[in-house]
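User: Let's play a game. I give you a shape written as tokens, and you guess the letters that built it. Ready? Here's round one.
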């Protein structure tokens, strides 16, 4: 089936499950967000052939997922979905450095203190272990 081939192609972006077991209707929230964030432009174009632009916008606006980087969120919101004039809370979409700290099982205060001491990490990702942003 054509849909199974598409899902198999998208397996690298839908890594948390077996993509071939997904259903385009039941799992569309997961599929849309994962492809918008991690897919290439070719994949996003294919996404627009599967779902209408209005349906993708509705999912993006009404069912946010906190998986986006700030640059990716702004690019998708403003250029891919053409939502420049709509106010959207970044907090609902953008991963924060605090989440990154939790992932590393560190406290944010400890990461910030370590960053100050080493002078490596500043700005949006004070907890990045390498200091590369």
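Assistant: Ready! My guess for every position:
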């Amino acid at each position: 089936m054509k849909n199974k081939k598409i899902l198999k192609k998208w397996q690298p972006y839908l890594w948390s499950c077996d993509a071939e077991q997904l259903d385009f209707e039941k799992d569309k929230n997961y599929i849309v967000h994962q492809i918008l964030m991690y897919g290439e432009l070719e994949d996003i174009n294919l996404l627009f052939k599967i779902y209408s632009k209005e349906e993708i916008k509705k999912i993006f606006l009404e069912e946010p997922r906190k998986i986006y980087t700030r640059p990716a969120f702004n690019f998708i919101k403003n250029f891919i979905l053409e939502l420049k004039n709509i106010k959207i809370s970044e907090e609902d979409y953008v991963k924060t450095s605090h989440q990154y700290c939790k992932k590393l099982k560190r406290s944010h205060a400890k990461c910030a203190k370590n960053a100050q001491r080493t002078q490596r990490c500043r700005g949006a990702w004070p907890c990045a272990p390498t200091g590369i942003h």
